[in-house]
Amino acid sequence: MVSPMAVERLQRGDHACWLYSDEPQRLTATARYVQAGLDGGEKVLLLTESIRPDALLAGLDAHGVDGAAPTRSGQLEIITADEAYLATRGFDPEVMIAGWPGVIASARDGGWSGLRVAADMSWALRATVDDSRLAWYEAHVNAVFSDTYTTVVCQYDRSRFPATELRRISAAHPATIPVGADGAWEPLLHVTRMTDPPGLRLSGEVDMSNRPAVAATLYDGIADGAHSGREFVVDVAALRFADVATAELLVAAARTGPAGLAVVGCSPALARMMTWVAEADGAGAEAAVPGLRIVVRERAS
């Protein structure tokens, strides 16, 4: 079971995989998630599969969420998964990703303070979507959601999805809310897209449980920012932990960035790992990988 309080730890820019095994408890936590969005003046979008839209609205009401007025005003919108993910007569991850910026822009134009989304992903079982395509979608949509406006949770029923699929899918999210998460749970990683300079801010921890999400967001960001001709910046000052594979990822990304890559706010440990990875002939990291710039964070006095 997931504590309803766990969802309150999410912040704008988060894209979390929410694992559950108890439908009534999911509804309780969803109600809390929805109420927080309504109270915060956010547009709330629910994509439902296991429960009909009218039944979901009634369920929210039973949990103390008055959805009638927000539905009339457009603040709360409940649609079926078919309308969202299968509108093109099948799941097309690239089309789906391309559609999200319009949804976000519409929420902004409506004057809402943010966009809050909860997606029941059980439709993927009915549509027999290949898990690799679904994981690809979840990883690459991070580039869209990693702003400071959007909060998204993707709900996966652990009792219905195979464990091997869930491992791949959850790793495509920066954070995962596991079954049994309590009120002390916190997202493992926050990924925030920066525009000036172009780049990403990583806060928390990067390991094998979320590295695919980081890799996709990093490479997509570099590709999107290539037209600017500016160095791509990865701010890791708030990164508490990064393993050797993360250092390898950053160095590899520097080799592909057309205008160079700066990793700023590095801990001494991460800087050493990146230098070790990048060294090809005993030279420093910048010499071994042209375009890579490592900036170590200043020690607190």
Account of the protein in words:
The chain has 301 residues and is of the alpha/beta class. It folds into 2 domains: 4-177, P-loop containing nucleotide triphosphate hydrolases (Rossmann fold); 189-296, STAS domain (Transcription Regulator spoIIAA, 2-Layer Sandwich). 41% of the residues lie in helices and 24% in strands. It has a 6-stranded parallel β-sheet with strand order 3-2-4-5-1-6, sandwiched between helices. α5 packs parallel to α7 (131-140), α7 runs parallel beside α9 (163-170) and α11 crosses α12. The longest helix has 17 residues, at 23-39. It is elongated, with a radius of gyration of 20 Å. It starts with 14 loop residues before the first strand and ends in a 5-residue tail after the last strand. InterPro entries: MEDS_domain (IPR025847), MlaB-like_STAS (IPR058548), STAS_dom (IPR002645), STAS_dom_sf (IPR036513). Residues 200-274 form the STAS domain. This is STAS domain-containing protein. It comes from Planosporangium mesophilum.
Q: Main sheet: which strands, in order across?
A: 3-2-4-5-1-6
Q: Report the top-level CATH class of the largest domain.
A: Alpha Beta
Radius of gyration: 20 Å
Count of individual domains: 2
* SSE arrangement, N to C: EHEHHEHHEHHHEHEEEHEHEHHE
Structural class: alpha/beta
CATH architecture label of the largest domain: 3-Layer(aba) Sandwich
Helical percentage:
40-55%
**Largest sheet descriptor:** 6 strands, parallel
The CATH topology of the largest domain corresponds to Rossmann fold
Q: Uncertain runs with pLDDT below 50, 5 residues or more? A: none
Shape: elongated
Q: From the structure provided, what is the oligomeric state, counting identical versus distinct chains?
A: single chain
Q: In the CATH hierarchy, what is the superfamily of the largest domain?
A: P-loop containing nucleotide triphosphate hydrolases
Pfam families: MEDS, STAS_2
Domain STAS: 200-274
Protein name: STAS domain-containing protein
